Amino acid sequence: MPRPFLIDTDAGSDDAVAILMALRHPDVDVRAITVVAGNVPLPQGVVNSLYFAELCEADVPVYAGADRPLLREYVSADWFHGADGLGDWGDRYKPTRSQAGDLHAVDAIIEVARATPDLVIVTLGPLTNLALALRKAPDIVSQASRCIVMGGAACTNGNVTPAAEYNIFCDPEAARIVFRSGLPLEMVGWEFSTGDFVLSPDDIEFVRAINTPYAEFTIDCNIKGMRGYEIQTGEIGISLPDGVAMAVAIDPTICRRQSQHYVDVECDSELTRGMTVVDKLNLADDERNAPVWRDLLAIPRKPLICWDLDALRWKNLLYDLLR
After folding, report:
1. Of 212, 217, 268, residue with least CA distance to 243
2. Taking CA 189 as the corner, what is the angle to CA 78 and CA 43, rounded to the nearest 5 degrees?
């Protein structure tokens, strides 16, 4: 039986690839796509998500959710993904027949979770929708078998500030709620969207040669992001953090090394806002540190942190799903 997935997305160009991977995998049954403001404003994210489903001829409901962070001013990533989130191709990527569902995304998450034992939740954007769902219905924690979070950076630099990755930076209060919720979290940080994980010029040429609508879309919608990534890092290639996270969701063995650690999210400091503070040395378990980590010690479950992923296997999985 295919595994049931729920995908929460902010529908940018790397989200597009991740969602395409899930919709095309024979062992994945996407029960719902919920949309949050992030890479692009909410209405554009809904339009993009409807297009992803149409491209894959998938009968999957799409639900609009939170249009802003819990407490912060909304900050988009349109400089990287384009105003439409997909590289500014005008009307090229527009749905022609589908519409969003009537439920709010928060209620859709709750409804799907309660109806779906062993649900796999994959988050690709800010965690606002999921945080609101957990606050409204904390019982859904027990329904999820896994919750893969593309977000944060484990003991390394971020991509929005030296300390923070965009999804967590955008709504750190929501991220703190999710990381403290007891969900079976697996954190796939931004560090797995650089270096060997990036589609190189040779990889891009290889994908072009696959010559399917999925392969064409994967490259074309990420061309603007490719320029943004070069400006940001000096590397030439297409960075797909959401695609990497989806690869781990589909095939957990792609993560070659992971371990459980307490994680908290910085919400008070402007310098380190959105930093995912990973207790890599398990110092919180040392009674001498209890006063410092008192809040974290109340967390009922330590998230799994991915420390090492197989870049070649992630790319081969992507290629297979683009054919």
Report:
1. 217
2. 30
The residues assigned a catalytic role are 10
Cβ burial 153-163 (10 Å sphere, 16+ → b, else e): bbeeebbbbeb
**Whole-angstrom Cα distance, residue 207 to residue 209?**
5
Residue 268, both tokens: 């008070």
Contact 272, 156 (CB under 8 A): no
pLDDT per residue as tens digits for the range 66-99: 999 999 999 999 999 999 999 999 999 999 999 9
List pLDDT tens digits, range 254-288. Answer: 999 999 999 999 999 999 999 999 999 988 776 66
d(CA 211, CA 227) in angstroms, rounded, equals 23
CB 35 within 8 A of CB 12: no
Exposed, middle or buried: residue 257 (CB in 10 Å: 0-12, 13-18, 19+)?
Answer: exposed
Would you give the distance in Å from CA 21 to the centre of its chain?
A: 13
> Which amino acid does the sequence have at 68?
R
Contact at 8 Å (CB) between 126 and 103?
no
* DSSP letters spanning 10-23: ---HHHHHHHHHHH
φ, ψ dihedrals at 144, nearest 5°: -85, 130
* Sign of the torsion formed by the C-alpha atoms of 195, 168, 305 and 108: negative
